Amino acid sequence: MTRFPFRSVLVANRGEIAVRVLRACRELGLTGIAVHSDPDAGALHVREADRAVAIGGSAVADSYLDQGKLLAAAAEAGAGAVHPGYGLLSEHAGFARAVTRAGLTWVGPPPEAIAQMGDKLAARRAVLAAGVEPVPGTTDPVADPAEVVAFGEANGWPVAVKAAAGGGGRGIRVAAGPADAAEALASATREAAAAFGDGACYLERFFPRPRHVEVQVLADTHGAIVQLGERDCSVQRRHQKLVEEAPSPGLPAEVGQRLRTWAVAVAKACGYVGAGTVEFLWDPGSGGAWFLEMNTRIQVEHPITEQVTGIDLVAAQLRVAAGEPLGLTQDDLMVRGHAIECRVNAEDPARGFLPTPGTITTLRWPGGPGLRVDAGYEGGDTVPAFYDDLLGKLVAWAPDRERAIARMRAALDELAVEGVATTAPALARVLDHDDFRAARHWTTWLEETLDLGGITPAAAPAAEADFQVSAGGQTWPVRLYRHRPRGPGGGPGGGGLVVSPLAGTLAKVHVAAGQRVAQGEPLAVVEAMKMETPLLAPFDGSVVGVRCAVGGPVAAGQVVVEVKAGGP
To answer: CA-to-CA distance for 322 and 9, rounded, in angstroms?
Structure first.
């Protein structure tokens, strides 16, 4: 029985991972403390917690990314440790240091390891020194499109422009040739600066049909490091994983052994402690395999490793943070059967996986032998527009891959969600496809090959009420509709009023008042849930004005730019 030096854990996160950590704390006899923004006041992770602390705010920068608020919440609740989950501040070395300076236990790797692996250029240099081969690329930042062109001419096209401080698929753009270099670098830099506060980017050779293979590692404070096998995460959209499985199907034994050995070497090289994931690119066409990056946190897809190894990774994180030895060796670990995870996100696959925040009127998760659900929402909950849109994860285990696929396919049929669109129809198409069943897919396979035609688009959400009227003990929402005459050529908002199709942040404005624009020309970019959505000119004309500030929030249907037809 672990003797924890802390009795309570503040979970500095939200959604399904917060629920997962809180449940692990309860099982270990620890008090789980949740934090919540204003939109999350009634969220499932709050309901699951032993105690919850309000940190206010709506936008992620004003809530879950506000280190001061999180540390104040820990002090208010008397927490002894902080678990960051994944995303948000989980790979922020400064936050890890601040937690330890406050006298709290950080449930994660040392800040030095986070900093080294979080800086993708420093990570590339470190793994080279450890005898591990990274994807061919640069070890210094690039700032000039001419450098992208020079790299492409020397190493071959396409070229990936990647955020040096990035992760989670953000800050990545691909230049197919010299003509794309400037826009790819500008777009990756912009997203990197917005997502990570650091716009530095580097270059890697982009392989057109690679597989994404990663290895789970676990290390304690006594020098023991083990690997828990590999996972395949090659079904992705917008560089975001959608389906993961363990072990990786079709991976040659020699390549798998090399990647698992490299993963341990990388963990040793950075003095790693806790649960982490070393990611690799495997190119079946050439047979080559290379180091991509290390994620210094628990992964979204950790349940499939738990299902095939029997190791509770979150409980292991907490025990390691308490100073306990792993208590197992590499010889003790064995992979049994096959596990598949499907991410159920509030996104509409019929509309390019556009996020669909709103109230979930019906949600029935599947059940049965070999099925596991890690959920962040229940029926009646509202998916806010401010955060990641993952509703939950379906995990199916079976003795072999074929039966695991069949079990997952049945689970997707049983899943029932109303009120928001989900990725479930796209997930079913993935599992039904011959390429996936034969493990012939690659990281851009879904976007390049999978036919999503025929999926019914989600109905537009009902407009929010301007005010409510109460009488006789009942309340009715009232919406005011204001007539706006349509200008020549019309427009998304009528009269040249260009509106945002979704809630998010205004990441970029390309135009200014008085500027001439052509139909289809980019006016602005709205970023939401790891996706950039361009707003385009509805017709030839001139810009009357920009209604929103760069970096500020934008509501769905809100006017961003006004354009008028004709001359200035």
So the answer is: 12
CATH number of 497-565: 2.40.50.100
| pLDDT for 471 | 47
- In this prediction the pTM is 0.82
Q: Which of 469, 355, 375 is nearest to 415 (CA)?
A: 375
For 105-139, write each residue's pLDDT tens digit. Answer: 999 999 999 999 988 888 989 999 999 999 888 88
CA separation for the pair 170, 186 (Å, rounded): 14
Residue spans of the domains in the chain: they are 8-107, 137-205, 211-448, 497-565
Segments in 28-110 forming alpha helices (H): 44-48, 67-77, 93-101
Sign of the torsion angle spanned by Cα atoms 173, 300, 18, 412 = positive
Superfamily of domain 137-205: ATP-grasp fold, A domain (3.30.1490.20)
Do residues 465 and 491 make contact, with C-beta atoms less than 8 angstroms apart?
no
ω before 111 within 30° of 0 (cis)?
A: no
Topology annotation, domain 8-107 = Rossmann fold (3.40.50)
CATH number for the segment(s) 211-448: 3.30.470.20
State the Cα–Cα distance between residues 94 and 72, nearest whole angstrom: 16
CA dihedral 236, 242, 246, 252 (to 10 degrees): -10
Cis peptide before 158 (omega within 30 of 0): yes
Distance CA 534, CA 508 (A): 9
Residues 6+ apart with CB under 8 A from 516: 541, 542, 567, 568
Q: Which of 310, 374, 373, 313 is nearest to 337 (CA)?
A: 310
Structural element, H or E, at residue 380: none
Tokens of 142: 């690039």
Q: Kindly tell me the sign of the dihedral angle through the C-alpha atoms of 463, 464, 468, 472.
A: positive
Neighbouring C-beta atoms of residue 283, cutoff 10 Å: 17
For 288, the 3-state DSSP assignment is strand
Query: Does residue 99 have a pLDDT over 70?
Result: yes
